[in-house]
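Data card: per-record layout.
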Amino acid sequence: MNIAENLKTINENIARAAQKSGRRAEDITLIAVTKSVEPTVLQNEINTLLAAGVRNFGENRVQELSAKQPLCGDGIIWHMIGNLQRNKVRNVVGHVALIHSLDSLRLAEEISRIAVREDVVADVLIEINIAGEDTKHGITSETAAQLAEQVAKLPNIAIKGLMTIAPFVDDGEENRPHFSKMAHLFSDLKADGHDMQHLSMGMTIDYEVAIEEGATMVRIGTAIFGERS
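The structure for this 229-residue chain is written out next.
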């Protein structure tokens, strides 16, 4: 495993895909997904990641987030990208820059409550189950506007965009229709006056297609760190 070489390839791919969509590589945020990466391994690779310009890390599990944050220093921007249970919100609000997985009003209310208590504003993305998969979290695209309106009325929580986890496929091209649909939803909500800054979609298998369709954030783990358990 050569993380520096992996990141060089990824950054080249991001730049090429961004150019195809009429944007620059700097317009795309690479989030290094650290799920199942041992804390000591991550600590040892911090300088390599930083040297490649990677400062955004994404965690799926609250427990892993809490274990890794103290080891990685202050120069890292953390994202909560996995399913977030309401009883774990207190361990995330104020500890990450962005929560990618808002999927209900009840979760939004708890995030708001904790954010008020901690005197912070929690930035969130609405998670869309764009392919309607039973195994995935997220709301339907048809209910996104309603949830956005409801959350806008809550204190200390701010919607900053959308996130999706596309189906697991062998060829990333298969997910292009899903990414296109997400981009249209993103544009529609923005036109309705919502603060749509981030469109988080695309992982190792399909991040280039996601960027071509408008992703501003891609979440990559395997292509950086290799296969993990």
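Known properties of this structure: The first helix runs from residue 3 to 20. The radius of gyration is 17 Å.

See the next section for split statistics.
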